[in-house]
Amino acid sequence: MTASFHDQVIAILPKLRVQALALTRNRSVAEDLVQDTVCNALAAQDSFVMGTNFAAWMHRILRNRFISDLRKKREVGNIDDTPQSLLSVSGRHEDRLALKELDAALARLPDDQREALVLGVLEGMSYQELADVAGCAVGTAKSRVFRARRQLEVWLMGEEEGGVSGKTGAETTTRASSTRRKTRTARNTTRNAQQTA
Questions:
Q1: What's the whole-number average pLDDT of the chain?
Q2: Which of 7, 76, 135, 173 has its CA 20 to 30 A from that of 35?
Q3: Torsion angle of alpha carbons 26, 113, 85, 197, nearest 10°?
Q4: pLDDT band at 173 (very low <50, low <70, confident <90, very high)
Q5: Signal peptide position in this chain (predicted)?
Q6: Domain-terminating residue out of 21, 48, 71
């Protein structure tokens, strides 16, 4: 193994853990998935072309390994095993409640949308990189991120799918204020996660 390849593997590990948690929603299964991914990457090291996008290559291996494990009926756990350091916020009670609500909403998203949102927002991947990782068209990657964001907005605002919630003006204003607070909390959480990764 070349020193350069080894260094790149070490550097990408925190990002692989984030992706694995987004896919599996279980800490121990995510760690196993990352280890399996690294083993697969080491075995396929000769197939990697130096100078190409190493991060996309590794994320693709992880995603393929996850799909392969699903096909083998490997049991996947729940979101309660997500490490708190990934979701850390200030000690304010409102922030913790907003984060808990956001966490529950993320868990409800389809796997492909949750993965695209986490990699795009937390990891800062471009739509092209998301498409490379997921093996789909750039437009599909954009659509997944858009649909995930829109669905989270609907759930966190308490609206119906069509946008009609039957709320009074005062209730809507209160909800909008609460949603802005949740959005700020989510942004702060994203920044904290990026700084610790």
A1: 74
A2: 135
A3: 110
A4: very low
A5: none
A6: 71
The dihedral formed by the CA atoms of 191, 89, 167 and 165, expressed in degrees to the nearest 10:
60
Rounded CA-CA distance 23/81 in Å is 12
In angstroms, the CA 189 to CA 183 distance is 10
% pLDDT > 90, the chain: 15
Residues 6+ apart with CB under 8 A from 77: 24, 25, 26, 28, 29
Please give the Cα distance from 111 to 63 (Å, whole number). Answer: 11
Specify if 176 maps to a domain.
yes
Q: Is 127 found in the same domain as 56?
A: no
The verdict on 185 and 99 lying in the same domain is: yes
The span from the CA of 166 to the CA of 49, in Å, is 56
**Residue 57 and residue 123 in one domain:** no
Q: Stretch 33-39: mean pLDDT, rounded?
A: 92
pLDDT at 19: 87
Summarize pLDDT for 84-129 with one digit per residue, the tens.
Answer: 544 444 445 566 666 677 778 888 888 888 888 888 877 788 888 8
Q: pTM of the entire structure?
A: 0.49
Q: pLDDT-derived band of residue 137, with 50, 70 and 90 as boundaries?
A: very high
Three state DSSP letters for 108-172: HCCHHHHHHHHHHHHCCCCHHHHHHHHCCCHHHHHHHHHHHHHHHHHHHHCCCCCCCCCCCHHHH
